Amino acid sequence: MSHEEFPTDRPAVVTCGLPYANGDLHVGHLRTYVGGDVYARALETLGQETAFVSGSDMHGTPVAVNADKEGVSPEEFALEWHETYKETFPQFDIEFDNYGHTHDETNTETTEEIVRELAANGHIYEKEIMVAYDPIEDQHLPDRYVEGTCPYCGETARGDECDDGCQRHLEPGEIEDPVSSITGNPAEYHERTHKFFEVSEFADYLTEFLDRLEGTSNAQNQPREWIESGLQDWCITRDLDWGIDYPEDAPDADGDDADDLVLYVWVDAPIEYISSTKQYTDRVGSDTYDWEQPWKDDGEIVHVIGRDIIQHHAIFWPAMLNGAGYVEPRAIMASGFVTLGGKGFSTSRDRAVWADEYLDEGFHPDLLRYYLATNGGFQQDVDFSWDKFRDRVNTELVGTLGNFVYRSLLFAARNYGGAPDATVSDEVDERISEAVADFEAAINDYSIRKAGNAAIDLAQFGNEYIQRNEPWKLTDDDPERAEQVIYDCVQLSKALAVLFQPVAPETCQRLWAQLGEDGDVADATVAVAREAPQGEFDEPDELFAKIEPERVEELNEKLEQRVEAATDDEADDDDADDTDDTDNDTMTDDTTDADTDAQAADLESLTEERISFEDFQDLDIRVGEIIDAEGVEDADKLAKLQVDIGHEERQLVAGIKQLHDLSDLPGTRVIIVANLEKAELFGVESNGMLLAAGDEADLLTTHGDAPIGTRIQ
């Protein structure tokens, strides 16, 4: 692994967190997989040798439980979902170089090899723990097969967690009146020998690893708290029939103790990253891509995951890799959640926009790819709504990129039969070079949003350029100048095809063909963006179509019917059977116009206490402008803002994370209290206070153009 800028001369592996083979995919799931696909394609556009791999997570208790409910074997149940995912991902142009699953022969062998190596190196030991047992059926029970009463709140609970009540984690044996959820028989707790991986011994290594780790800041910072609070060793075996058996020939296995234990799902799941890369090499040959280079020698490993599995990827996984002699990850990109109308997705309550539903509505996959990739920073939560979706599509894809390309190529085809006989101007060549530099910087900053914006900003420049030069007025008066302008526009269109391809691959391939270019645009590197266009081409078709308001009304009506059927209890938005990475705590609902009258009746009464004019003058209230905004780690509501107040830049923390699209805030004029005492919130210093109105945090600003730093009097 290097820390050189991409592209490097070392092979890269980009992985996505494994989807759990337990249910349908929705757009919340797709954010991670679209993000991984965009990033892998972008690396290749930079010229980086890259393998993009993943697979289905087949093991674990929920699969076994749900398979039993359906009367099929866990393998049959999981394989059916695996095949569904294999069919779904390509429909969104998510193209893994290899997509395997954790139950296949390659992963079984690789997992056993790594466990043997960990045991041989002294990193696995045995320990007696309490395990539930059904004495009537003579059956050991995983915690999720146990139900009973929470000893803390009295609600019904699982053996490991009080789902319906206080949400506490429960240790084995704590649950009261335990019964088997399989048979209904009373359960007992017995001591049983299990295997533990000594993660605690890797604390120093992991601290140094996190100092080196690149990617999103949540993946870099959250694990430090776990290390500082003291790492706990992980039990890596389970009493299940479904999973990869603990290898009997591992150095610490002592006969019967290991015979009926399977490995914990979080042992074999990340190892699938290695196994899937192996399978890619088996298919294409080691001369094309050698899996051992990135995993055992010196490669660039980038994990793209949901933020709820940071601990597994930034603590457990690198410790396993280090203990078994493998290369550590270079970067971890952890995405925020996707919410629906301000609330978390819930698969069990059908509160979701399903992947197949999106396609059935007739929308192109590139539209959703663009929305998910560029709607906020990767680690920020994104709220999906059909209205916001329509606005982004119509404004940026149709109105900016699509409009520029269509008018440019149509004019070129009708007047010159393709690209005119000219060379690119210095102005346009420099602007393309800037866009390429922005794209390269974005990928090295692990920002797929900035990578997508590099192309949109270039298209905006193109619109301004063609409008400013008006070639339709030059064809008679100054034909040479007209040719120059249109040639520049064709060159810009070619650059857009190259730079926007990672986000919108099918659309950019169509654009590539409309330009008369040969081959696949996915094979073009950033250097091709400045190469001369091929020449002749026919009249183009429009790349994107507007979404009409009536269409959104129809979609909203369907969505509202689904949301109305969901629970109104915001504190209980996650179902006990939900295992998706994207379910999260309910967020504040957006306020609608219909609520205005009701709110007016609920206005907070005026305070009777008065302050003097002198006290008011003590407040230093200033006009500021937001420069940057991002969510505060581990805080649902807090955002960290960098604000220019004229004399200096200030860092403020404000509770607006759930109420504003943070990516839209830079450039916004705001009002702040500048002389408030400093405070620390979630470990982040706040040097001032942002002023906003009401529960919806309507940001205060000025009516005119008061200069930044102006004092409010």
TrEMBL record:
Q: Which GO terms describe its cellular component?
A: aminoacyl-tRNA synthetase multienzyme complex; cytosol
Question: Is Nucleotide-binding included in the keywords of this UniProt record?
Answer: yes
List UniProt keywords, sorted A-Z.
Answer: Aminoacyl-tRNA synthetase, ATP-binding, Cytoplasm, Ligase, Metal-binding, Nucleotide-binding, Protein biosynthesis, RNA-binding, tRNA-binding, Zinc
Note whether Transport occurs among the keywords.
no
Signal sequence: where?
none
GO MF annotation terms: ATP binding; metal ion binding; methionine-tRNA ligase activity; tRNA binding
All copies of the TRNA-binding domain together span 615-713
Write out the residues that bind Zn(2+).
C150, C153, C162, C166
Protein's cellular compartments: Cytoplasm
Q: What coarse category fits the chief subcellular location reported for this protein?
A: cytoplasm
Please report, in chain numbering, the residue ranges of the motif 'HIGH' region.
19-29
List ligand-binding residues for ATP.
T347
Cofactor(s) the protein requires to work: Zn(2+)
Role according to the record: Is required not only for elongation of protein synthesis but also for the initiation of all mRNA translation through initiator tRNA(fMet) aminoacylation.
- Family designation: Belongs to the class-I aminoacyl-tRNA synthetase family. MetG type 1 subfamily.
Q: Cross-referenced HAMAP family, in alphabetical order?
A: Met_tRNA_synth_type1
What is the protein's quaternary organization? Homodimer.
What is the protein's name according to its record?
Answer: Methionine--tRNA ligase
Give the source species.
Halonotius aquaticus
Identify the taxonomic lineage of the organism of origin.
Answer: Archaea, Methanobacteriati, Methanobacteriota, Stenosarchaea group, Halobacteria
Gene name on record? metG
